[in-house]
Amino acid sequence: MTDGQRQYGPLGSTLVIIPTYNEAENIKPIVSRVRSAVPEAHVLIADDNSPDGTGKLADELAATDDKVHVLHRKGKEGLGAAYLAGFRWGIDNGHDVLVEMDADGSHQPEELPRLLTALKGADLVLGSRWVPGGRVVNWPKYREVLSRGGSTYSRVMLDVPIRDVTGGFRAFRVATLEGLGLDEVASQGYCFQVDLARRAVQAGYHVVEVPITFVDRELGDSKMSRDIVVEALWRITAWGIGSKVSKIRGR
After folding, report:
1. Are strands 14-20 and 42-47 parallel, antiparallel or unpaired?
2. Facing residues of 127 across strands?
3. 227 in Cβ contact with 83 (< 8 Å)
4. Phi and psi, residue 7, nearest 5°
5. What is the per-residue pLDDT across 94-153, written as a single tens digit (0 to 9) for each?
6. What's the Cα-to-Cα distance from 207 to each of 50, 73, 139, 141, 165, rounded to whole Å?
7. 150: number of Cβ within 10 Å
8. pLDDT tens digits along 73-109
9. What is the DSSP letter of 232?
10. Are 150 and 232 in contact (CB under 8 A)?
11. Helix or strand (DSSP H, E) at 223
12. Which residues pair with residue 32 across a beta bridge?
């Protein structure tokens, strides 16, 4: 498939990156579902030294499956840092496609084939809750309002044509990630997702959204916090103002 005059090559080797912190109840079921949904893909569990033993369970999975790998990190440093470490591991180990996915079951592994199919004609594919066909299940209303509002605010402030800017179920071609200036990414939390999305649009990459069903976690605790929301708000505002000032000065 092509985007304009661009010819996209085959996808190659896929690595699904699953960051974990205290996901002992979820890690085995989610890895099992990923391996069933995309048997040809590898899985990397990036564990932030979970005190509940998630890392040990991940090691047990890796010991019995040569397509499951574990990256043990020193401590909890945020979602962004975990994904950046996972990206570097994937690139260093020769993978061509890197997928972001939560450990808590909110992202359905059974929808991975749809994302990867869409990536055959794109640079980046986002699993979207807010495009036609996308939906959320078992979410309290305030979470939906917060997520929809965050995506709308990000889209307007940053001038990006993406409906679900904050979503974290994504498939990247490695060439796309290498063109985003990952060494300059400092954002953590869920703002990390906004940062990568805006960088992809600004770099001119072809970004596609496909509908997903997002299911609220049933086990374990959410990592969302007031600090994460505050960080996202001020960073997005600063990026948006900076971009608008640059455009005015460039006229």
Report:
1. parallel
2. 210
3. no
4. -105, 125
5. 999 999 999 999 999 999 999 999 999 999 999 999 999 999 998 888 888 888 888 888
6. 33, 30, 27, 28, 11
7. 20
8. 999 888 899 999 999 999 999 999 999 999 999 999 9
9. H
10. yes
11. none
12. none
Residue type for position 176: T
CA pair distance 35, 205, nearest whole angstrom = 29
Q: Which amino acid is at 61?
A: L
Q: Kind and range of the H or E element at 148?
A: helix 141-158
Label residue 66 exposed, middle or buried (CB < 10 Å: 0-12, 13-18, 19+). exposed
What would the two tokens of residue 195 be? 């940062």
Q: Pairing mode, if any, of strands 97-100 and 68-72?
A: unpaired
Tokens standing for residue 2: 């092509």
By three-state DSSP, how is residue 246 classified? helix
Identity of the amino acid at 143: R
Tokens standing for residue 186: 């400092």
Rounded CA-CA distance 143/198 in Å is 23
